[in-house]
């Protein structure tokens, strides 16, 4: 579903490359966590998949399409295949929950009768049917993120990218949101989630891709946030040797 071959990215005004020779494949229906310290290149990688940025070198394939070769007029079609969710929700403040979700379908020209039938389904999926007429500022952060997920999912994208979707949420709400992303994943969507949330990654035990200074330094099935989380408890500590003359 996603293929990155020797992908590097240097921003015109960047003092160092944002991505360095990244090669990875993400298959249909996978759920992948993208981890790494701030500035390691996670957002840049997601932006390449959306063709919001172009790789400086290397190849990026999304659903079989080489994104560098997609003409500008083909980019909206690419973005129909790839839904996104962000840390700051990005809902339209002056539209209701229903209108926010419907908007995603209106802009791609879906007929009114389709919009009228699929928006309530999306609201049901995220458990917000009874808040359909509220405005974003009348919702909690977790509820706003649910609306954002419904909006990203309503057009049935093949890939859902989530950039630090729990960054503004408390621990319990974060678990609800990752469970919702897992529901979307179980519906057949490939999910890539960039995150700093170690406890979620450690609880879910999915594939982990780790970036450091733009390089892919780990690709681990059923991984943890930190490779050391796994290694440390498994290495027995040497027992201090007690000199014979001190043994009673
Ligand atoms: N538009 C830009 N112009 C120049 N440099 C940029 C731009 N966007 C990102 N960078 C640089 O590219 C590198 C990677 O940034 P990126 O935002 O991809 O990291 P990140 O891992 O998503 O960080 P965070 O976890 O803080 O969101 C950083 O050094 C950053 O300063």
TrEMBL record:
GO biological process: cell division
Membrane topology recorded in Swiss-Prot or TrEMBL: Peripheral membrane protein
Keyword line: ATP-binding, Cell cycle, Cell division, Cell membrane, Membrane, Nucleotide-binding
GO molecular function: ATP binding; ATP hydrolysis activity; transmembrane transporter activity
Pfam family, one: ABC_tran
Source domain of life: Bacteria
Compartments where located: Cell membrane
GO cellular component: plasma membrane
Entries under InterPro entries matching the protein: AAA+_ATPase, ABC_transporter-like_ATP-bd, ABC_transporter-like_CS, ABC_transpr_LolD-like, Cell_div_FtsE, P-loop_NTPase
Start and end residues of each ABC transporter domain: 2-238
Family membership: Belongs to the ABC transporter superfamily.
Oligomeric and partner information: Homodimer. Forms a membrane-associated complex with FtsX.
Protein's job: Part of the ABC transporter FtsEX involved in cellular division. Has ATPase activity.
Full protein name: Cell division ATP-binding protein FtsE
The species this protein was found in: Frankia casuarinae (strain DSM 45818 / CECT 9043 / HFP020203 / CcI3)
Protein's gene: ftsE
């Amino acid at each position: 579903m996603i293929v990155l071959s020797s992908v590097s990215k240097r921003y015109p005004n960047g003092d160092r490359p944002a991505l360095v020779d990244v090669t990875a494949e993400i298959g249909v229906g996978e759920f992948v966590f993208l981890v790494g310290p701030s500035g390691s290149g996670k957002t840049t990688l997601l932006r390449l998949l959306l063709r919001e940025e172009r790789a400086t070198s290397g190849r990026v394939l999304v659903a079989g399409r080489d994104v560098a070769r997609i003409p500008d007029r083909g980019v909206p079609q690419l973005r129909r295949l790839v839904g996104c969710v962000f840390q700051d929700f990005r809902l339209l403040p002056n539209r209701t929950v229903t209108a926010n979700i419907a908007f995603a379908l209106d802009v791609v020209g879906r007929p009114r009768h389709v919009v009228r039938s699929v928006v309530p389904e999306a609201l049901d999926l995220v458990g917000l049917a009874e808040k359909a007429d509220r405005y974003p500022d009348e919702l909690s952060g977790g509820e706003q993120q649910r609306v954002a997920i419904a909006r990203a999912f309503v057009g049935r994208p093949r890939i859902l990218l989530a950039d630090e979707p729990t960054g503004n949420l408390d621990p319990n709400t974060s678990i609800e949101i990752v469970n919702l992303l897992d529901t979307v994943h179980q519906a057949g969507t490939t999910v890539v989630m960039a995150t700093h949330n170690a406890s979620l990654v450690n609880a879910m035990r999915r594939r982990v891709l780790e970036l450091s200074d733009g390089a892919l330094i780990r690709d681990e099935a059923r991984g943890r946030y930190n490779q050391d989380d796994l290694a440390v408890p498994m290495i027995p500590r040497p027992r201090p040797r007690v000199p014979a003359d001190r043994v009673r």
